[in-house]
UniProtKB/TrEMBL annotation:
Organism this protein belongs to: Phenylobacterium parvum
Sites where the protein binds Zn(2+): H16, H18, H196, D277
Record-listed substrate binding positions: D278
Cofactor(s) for this UniProt protein: Zn(2+)
Feature type site, description Important for catalytic activity: H220
Record domain Adenosine deaminase: where: 11-321
Active site: E199 (proton donor)
Gene Ontology cellular component list: cytosol
Protein name: Adenine deaminase
UniProt entry keywords in alphabetical sequence: Hydrolase, Metal-binding, Nucleotide metabolism, Zinc
Taxon lineage: Bacteria, Pseudomonadati, Pseudomonadota, Alphaproteobacteria, Caulobacterales
C-alpha cells in the first residue's frame, strides 16, 4: 500500500541490529544439518513457538542457545548476507550491524571465524546489493570487564575494519560504569562507542553511558523519558537514540505498539531512529518496524522523513563516504 511504498522508498539506515538475532529458524535447521548439530527442537514451528518472552532475559537465554549452530566462516557469511538482502529489499542504504564475539569465543570458536565470515558477508552485500555496511563489536555486560578487555585485544588485527564497540546483554544490575576502562581503550584506538541503555535499566544508566563511556549513540534509551532533565539534555546535545519498537513490544517494554513512545520522542525533539534489534526473534525486519509503528502511533509523512534523516545523520559514515542528505 501507499504507506509501505513511501517508507520503502525513503533512503534509511539501520543502526541497531544484532546479526545473531537475524538467525531465522529455517537457517538454524540448515546450519544444524550442515554442521551435524542436534537441536533441542523437532521443527521450525516448535522453535517459533518458543519465541514468547516477558522480559529481556527470556529472550537472551534462547538467543545465545540459537547462536550455537554458527560454526564456520561460511555460516557467518550466509547469516549476514541473508540479513542484508532483507534490509536492501526494505529500502535500507546503510546497515551497521552488531555482533557478540564472546558468545562464540566462549564456546570455543577462534575469534577470527565470526569476524572474517561477517566481513565477507558485508563485502558481498556491498557488491551484490550496493549496500553500505559497517560492523560494531559488542561486549557482553553480564561478563566481567576483564573479559571485554581480552576481547578488544583479540580484535586488534581487525580494528581498521570495525566501526566501533557496543555494550549489550542483560542490562539491569550491569551498569555502564563497569566498562569504563574498555570503552576508554576503544576510544583511544579510534573506535566509535555505543551502549544499550534505558531498555530495562533506569535513566541513570543512560547518563552513565554518556558521561562515563562517552558514547556516540544510545541504543534504545526509552527509559530516559522518565527523567525530564535527562530528556532535555539528550535533545540539547542531539544524541541519537536507536529505538526498536517491535523489540520493545515482544520484550514487554510497552504493552502495545499503540502506546509506544516513538511519536512522543519526535515531538520532544529527540533524534530517534527505527530499528529491528533481533528481527528473527521479534517478528519483523526494518520495514515491518517502520510500517507497524507508523500505523499504530499515527506518524505523518514529516515524522517519517525526520526518522529517515535521523538514521542517515546518526550513521557512522567514514569521511570518504560522507553522509547522504535527505
Ligand atoms: N538488549 C540487550 N542485549 C541484546 C539485545 C537487546 O535488545 N539483543 C541482543 N542482545
Ligand atoms: Zn539490541
Amino acid at each position: 500500500d501507499a504507506l509501505t511504498d513511501f517508507i520503502r522508498r525513503l533512503p534509511k539506515a539501520e543502526l541497531h541490529m544484532h546479526v545473531e538475532g537475524s538467525l531465522e529458524p529455517e537457517m538454524m535447521f540448515d546450519l544444524a544439518r550442515r554442521n551435524r548439530i542436534a537441536l533441542p527442537f523437532p521443527n521450525v514451528e516448535a522453535v517459533r513457538a518458543a519465541y514468547s518472552f516477558s522480559r529481556l532475559q527470556d529472550f537472551l537465554d534462547i538467543y545465545y542457545q540459537g547462536a550455537a549452530v554458527l560454526r564456520t566462516e561460511e555460516d557467518f557469511h550466509d547469516l549476514a548476507l541473508a540479513y542484508f538482502r532483507r534490509a536492501a529489499a526494505d529500502g535500507a542504504v546503510r546497515c551497521e550491524i552488531f555482533f557478540d564475539p564472546q558468545t562464540h569465543t566462549d564456546r570455543g570458536l577462534p575469534f577470527g571465524v565470526a569476524i572474517e565470515g561477517l566481513l565477507s558477508g558485508m563485502a558481498a552485500a556491498e557488491t551484490e546489493l550496493g549496500l553500505s555496511t559497517g560492523l560494531i563489536l559488542c561486549f557482553l555486560r553480564h561478563l566481567p570487564e576483564d573479559a571485554a578487555l581480552d576481547t578488544l585485544k583479540a580484535a586488534e588485527p581487525w580494528l581498521d575494519r570495525l566501526l566501533g564497540v557496543g555494550l549489550d546483554s542483560s542490562e539491569a544490575g550491569f551498569p555502564p560504569s563497569g566498562f569504563q576502562k574498555v570503552f576508554k581503550a576503544a576510544g583511544e584506538r579510534g573506535l566509535k562507542r555505543v551502549a544499550h541503555a534505558g531498555e530495562e535499566g533506569p535513566p541513570a544508566y543512560v547518563a552513565e553511558a554518556l558521561d562515563l563511556l562517552k558514547v556516540d549513540r544510545i541504543d534504545h534509551g526509552n527509559r530516559a523519558l522518565e527523567d525530564d532533565d535527562l530528556t532535555a539534555r539528550l535533545v540539547r546535545e542531539g544524541q541519537v537514540l536507536t529505538v526498536c519498537p517491535l523489540s520493545n513490544l515482544k520484550l514487554c517494554g510497552v504493552p502495545s505498539l499503540e502506546v509506544h513512545p516513538l511519536k512522543r520522542m519526535l515531538q520532544l525533539g529527540l533524534k530517534a531512529t527505527v530499528n529491528s534489534d533481533d528481527p528473527a526473534y521479534f517478528g519483523g525486519y526494518l520495514l515491518d518496524n517502520w510500517v507497524q509503528t507508523a500505523r499504530a502511533v499515527g506518524l505523518e509523512r514529516e515524522h517519517l522523513v525526520t526518522l529517515a534523516r535521523n538514521s542517515l545523520e546518526g550513521a557512522f559514515w567514514t569521511e570518504a563516504e560522507g553522509a547522504p542528505h535527505l
